[in-house]
Amino acid sequence: MTAFLVIVLGALVGIGLLTIALGVRGKSPTDKEQTRLKKFRAKGSREEAGKLLAERLLQLVLAVLLGLGGWSATGWLAAGLLGAMAGWVGPLMLQAPKKRRAVTDEIEAYSQWAEQVRDLVGASGSLFEAVTLSAGNAPEQLRPAVVNMTTLARTVGLPHALNWFAEEMRSPFADRLVLGMKIAWDSGARVTEAFESTARGMRNEVEMRRRNEVANSRVWTQVVSIVAVTIIAVGFMFVFNQGFFDPFGTLIGQVVLLVVGVLIFGNVVWVLKLSETGTPIRLLARERAESAGAETAAATRDT
Questions:
Q1: CA angle at 42 for the pair 105 and 161, rounded to the nearest 5°
Q2: Contact 265/81 with Cβ under 8 angstroms?
Q3: Which domain holds residue 37?
């Protein structure tokens, strides 16, 4: 019995020592790199999801308020449906020009950063130093992400940090720069000409988009003016001449009113789609970035 007790206690002590050893050993450098990359990616995904959720909640709240307001003011189901449509489409109308300008400003920011990295690479010859030095003077729109990337690069290396940057920005223009930097990093050569051509191409695209924006703004101003004048006119007529709307209280009148409203808002949505500026296809998808990171980690372990 005593021998059996000694064996059991010895086994428990061995298990305890093994558990302590596993806990003290910690993670390997590669595991730490992957964990930190996942944390950075999760943070960016949460911020983007929160922004999109806020926009959708705003549209939903306006749709509910205007829908209930139209229904309670007139007693017509068609008015409630049209109010809900107006609440959903209204924010899209107001945000469309801002989003188009944001895309153009984004391209210009990448172009400026590419030129900065090109000049710093030409001066220092080291891509890591060039990217690190450019963080403080990067365009304001990209500066937070570039600073985070350089911080991450000091811990996990520049290739891993570039993969994170491409996944964080989710932009075809960021993919262009990341691919150029990775080629420069792997080859060890100065590729100032590649950065020059990339920056020049982005500059040309910015000029083209700004010319298109001038034409889009004219059409968009006309659309917004027509919709605003229509809503204001209908509101004044409803307040001062309600008898004009008596025929719309019937079933046929509400059907006609709903059809007219659907045509108006359908045209607005159609103009929204036409005014959208296309973006190039991403060169680095999330799966490719993660597989590239895994391959680099495997190569690091092998060496």
A1: 65
A2: no
A3: 32-302
Q: What angle separates helix 286-302 from helix 29-74, to the nearest 10 degrees?
A: 170
- pLDDT tens digits, 193-212: 777 777 888 888 888 888 87
**Between residues 69 and 196, which one has the greater pLDDT?**
69
What domain count does the chain have?
A: 1
- Whether residue 4 lies inside any domain: the answer is no
* Rg, the chain, Cα only: 29
Cβ neighbour number for residue 150 with a 10 Å cutoff: 20
Instruction: Report yes or no on 158 lying in a domain.
Output: yes
Residue ranges of alpha helices (H) inside 135-250 are: 143-156, 158-169, 172-187, 192-240
- What is the distance between the alpha carbons of residues 250 and 76, in angstroms, rounded to a whole number? 9
The CA-atom distances, in angstroms, between 174 and each of 179, 245, 280 are 9, 55, 11
Helix spans in 125-156 (H): 127-134, 143-156
Under 8 Å between Cβ of 37 and 156: yes
